[in-house]
Design a protein that fits this description.
- By secondary structure, the chain is of the alpha+beta class.
- The chain folds into two domains: 211 residues, Thiol Ester Dehydrase, Chain A; 83 residues, no CATH class.
- Helices cover 21% and strands 28% of the residues.
- It starts with 42 loop residues before the first helix and ends with a strand.
């Protein structure tokens, strides 16, 4: 009854207690335990979990059922991301203004971590974006391929947080099938994963939500477990799945270390010759060699490749045009040509990163 938002006066059901009680009265403290059904595994889960925490607290204050209450979150600002400690814990406190719906969530009563506004919409249909279309299909991916790519970028999604069943990228975003199992945290998190997967295609940094302009939640469309079609339009910045729509999601790069890169220590460096009899063409040999080189060096995306000097009559001069052509395939580099030197035959340049 309390979880449903009701506040019954249980004391009215029993005769009044007269103090002090007798010495043989049993203690009730052993009958009260903490409810640990809700567990938060990642910083991303904490972002969606804090929305659910605010939603539940709002409904309890209004004495209404969360399963029957549509809400709109506006101007959400993440002031600090939470990392779940392996040992110990922390306390989250939710403060909601009754009239305006402005709320704040604090950690241990000191640190502000999330702020925004929660309201009940007067006209729910008007809260949703009316234009949610994407271009024709371009490339389809399975769930294994989606989460394999996210894992390569540094994200660690497991179990119920792998909610994307399939995903199709388009010229204006993506379309995915998301599994709804009754867990709001996992479902909303899956919608955010669609944005991270699409917008972070050219970056291998880890991004977390920083700001949400508007989030609409309609629980009436989530009565039974089912697979739900979700659409993300990166032009309008809107992602929608079932009765949930997120508008104006902004993310920021984090400094989370990926693959324990800070703990690596170079002990020695040895050159190992690479021979492959299947590489019969010069273009294949140069392209594979450059791929191996780029995979084993760390180059910030802001750097660019530039031809800095040339050697006349070099034995490697015949590779100049091949290298120039292959460099344009590497999206992490911006290739710049200087005059006709790059195009001239029998010239070979040294590549420098700036």
């Amino acid at each position: 009854m309390y979880e449903a938002g009701l506040l019954p006066k249980v004391s009215s059901l029993y005769p009044p207690v007269r103090y002090p009680v007798s010495r043989g009265t049993a203690s009730l403290s052993s009958l009260v335990t903490w409810d640990h059904k809700d567990t938060y595994l990642t910083a991303m889960d904490m972002n969606t979990g804090r929305l659910l925490l605010t939603w539940k607290h709002y409904c309890s204050k209004q004495k209404i059922y969360i399963s029957e209450t549509s809400v709109v979150f506006e101007n959400l600002q993440v002031h600090q991301h939470l990392v779940i400690p392996e040992k110990g814990g922390f306390t989250l406190s939710v403060f909601i203004q009754r009239g305006s719906g402005f709320f704040e969530i604090e950690m241990d009563g000191v640190t502000l971590i999330l702020s925004g506004q929660i309201v009940q919409p007067q006209n729910l249909k008007q809260e949703f974006d009316k234009y949610m279309t994407v271009s024709p299909d371009v490339f389809s991916l399975t769930a294994q391929e989606v989460y394999s790519e996210l894992k390569n970028r540094g994200y660690q999604y497991t179990d119920q947080f792998r909610g994307i069943l399939d995903l199709t990228t388009t010229q204006k975003g993506c379309v995915a099938t998301v599994n709804w199992t009754g867990n709001w945290c996992c479902f909303i998190d899956s919608l955010i994963q669609m944005v991270l997967f699409t917008d972070g295609d050219n970056s291998h940094d880890i991004y977390l939500p920083l700001e949400i302009r508007k989030a609409v939640i309609d629980p009436s469309q989530h009565k039974e477990p089912r697979d739900i079609k979700a659409v993300y339009n990166n032009i309008s910045g809107v992602v929608r799945g079932g009765g949930v729509e997120i508008q104006g999601l902004k993310v920021s790069a984090t400094k989370i270390l990926k693959n324990n890169e800070a703990s690596l220590k170079l002990e020695s460096m040895t050159f190992i010759s690479h021979t492959n009899p299947r590489l019969k063409l010069t273009e294949q040999f140069v392209e594979v060699s450059m791929q191996i080189a780029f995979e084993n060096i760390s180059i910030p995306t802001t750097r660019k490749a530039t031809i800095v000097d040339f050697e006349e009559e070099s034995s490697l001069g015949r590779f100049t045009s091949v290298v120039k052509h292959i460099l344009k395939k590497f999206h992490i580099l911006k290739f710049h040509e200087y005059g006709a030197l790059v195009l001239a035959p029998k010239h070979f340049g040294r590549i420098a990163f700036q």
